[in-house]
């Protein structure tokens, strides 16, 4: 448009990503966001970006807002580990915790297939990895630790058994555990810390550094998950900060695992990767992995890319644990970032933050849409917009005027066909 208030680049094909790839430069970490956990375009374009970063710039791994044990199973598959599965759709069934659609979907299947093909002719250290950054998998991680230690270190296995026994009375329900420890001055903190310390006393258990890393990481997840669930019942910013601190610690560990020149790609919601210090989250004492990465590695070494849409459809649930549904996403609210982009033009676009610095409306906080796994379009105006200073929260932003819902593996497609979602076939 002739009257557009700032520069942007239309995006319709993979070649249009050139401007973003150039902006990323030699950054050590690239974080790719999403404005919901259930929008197809966010997944397919993040795949297209990740593919180019891995192929052209040598990025070593993709780390996502998913649980470590399940994502490590996918990592084994894409690297061709023995007995790691043969069919992508079967491997992705490992995602059984609600919301299953976040990673058990056909868009992720396309990413996994590409990564497996990319890795096929690579040597071990050259293979691109896929890992989970999240902290929810308390019981699954404990069980994996115990299973490994029983075959490798009987003494450390006893520490793992003690930790599991401590949690047993709570019926594998973290909320039950959290409520119980809120009123009784006993918890399982010492048990999981003892288990982690026993494991860390060993430099290695096997001749496979990644396999040993997996055991250590599961123990760390158990420690931080216990801390997260205790913080959760107290409310406030505590549990959020425990979670994002764990994500940052895991990212640090993954970069260290892959060597001093390692580079990583992160896939998480905008609320995690967009620097929280430039939103109202900071008013509540919250921080996130995007903010921590900038502080730890320096702004030049971290590129934060937000995603958003004006309208469309999304997969979400009406309440926590509710069945997944395809829901309409209404036109963005008046005065919001997404409405502004729609009124400028209906083009899908890439916007670099350096081109927004002098836009007066963007030097203050404006509403920026955020849809979680729990969503009700009728109440969107009451909590789905995060006041944000856009040019500072992100280094770049990718906008789609209309989007469609992600395609879950567990949801029937029309005619029973698998959708054509390969992102390199624009």
From TrEMBL:
Q: Which Pfam families match?
A: Erythro_esteras (PF05139)
| Family matches, as InterPro entries | Emycin_Estase, Hydrolase/PRTase-associated, UCP036794_erythomycin
Q: Looking at the record's lineage, which domain of life comes first?
A: Bacteria
Under the heading PANTHER family, the entry gives: ESTERASE, PUTATIVE (AFU_ORTHOLOGUE AFUA_1G05850)-RELATED
Q: What is this protein called?
A: Erythromycin esterase family protein
Give the source species: Pontibacter locisalis
């Amino acid at each position: 448009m002739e009257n557009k208030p700032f520069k942007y680049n239309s995006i319709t094909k993979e070649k249009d990503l050139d401007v973003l790839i150039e902006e990323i430069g030699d950054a050590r970490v690239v974080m790719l966001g999403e404005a919901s956990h259930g929008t197809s375009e966010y997944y397919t374009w993040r795949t297209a970006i990740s593919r180019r970063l891995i192929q052209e710039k040598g990025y070593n791994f993709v780390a996502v807002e998913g649980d470590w044990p399940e994502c490590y199973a996918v990592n084994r598959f894409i690297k061709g580990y023995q007995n790691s599965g043969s069919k992508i759709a079967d491997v992705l069934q490992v995602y059984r915790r609600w919301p299953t659609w976040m990673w058990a979907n056909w868009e992720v299947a396309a990413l996994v297939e590409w990564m497996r093909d990319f890795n096929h002719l690579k040597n071990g250290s050259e293979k691109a990895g896929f890992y989970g950054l999240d902290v929810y998998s308390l019981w699954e991680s404990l069980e994996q630790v115990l299973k490994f230690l029983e075959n490798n270190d009987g003494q450390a296995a006893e520490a793992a058994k003690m930790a599991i026994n401590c949690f047993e009375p709570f019926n594998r329900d973290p909320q039950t555990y959290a409520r119980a420890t809120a009123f009784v001055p006993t918890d399982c903190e010492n048990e999981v810390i003892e288990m982690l310390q026993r494991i860390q006393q060993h430099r290695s258990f096997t001749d496979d550094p990644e396999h040993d890393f997996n055991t250590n990481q599961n123990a760390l997840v158990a420690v931080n998950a216990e801390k997260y669930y205790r913080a959760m019942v107290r409310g406030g910013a505590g549990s959020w900060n425990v979670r994002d601190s764990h994500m940052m610690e895991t990212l640090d560990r993954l970069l260290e695992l892959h060597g001093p020149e390692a580079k990583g790609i992160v896939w998480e919601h905008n609320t995690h990767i967009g620097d929280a210090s430039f939103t109202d989250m900071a008013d509540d004492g919250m921080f996130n992995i995007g903010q921590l990465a900038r502080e730890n590695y320096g702004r030049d070494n971290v590129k934060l890319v937000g995603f958003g849409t004006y309208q469309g459809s999304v997969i979400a649930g009406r309440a926590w644990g509710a069945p997944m549904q395809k829901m309409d996403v209404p036109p963005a609210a008046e005065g919001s970032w997404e409405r502004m982009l729609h009124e400028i033009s209906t083009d899908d676009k890439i916007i670099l933050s350096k081109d927004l610095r002098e836009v007066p409306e963007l030097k203050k906080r404006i509403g920026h849409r955020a849809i979680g796994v729990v969503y009700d379009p009728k109440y969107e105006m009451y909590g789905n917009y995060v006041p944000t200073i856009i040019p500072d929260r992100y280094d770049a932003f990718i906008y789609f005027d209309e989007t469609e819902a992600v395609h879950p593996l567990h949801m029937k497609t029309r005619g029973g066909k698998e959708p054509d979602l390969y992102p390199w076939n624009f």
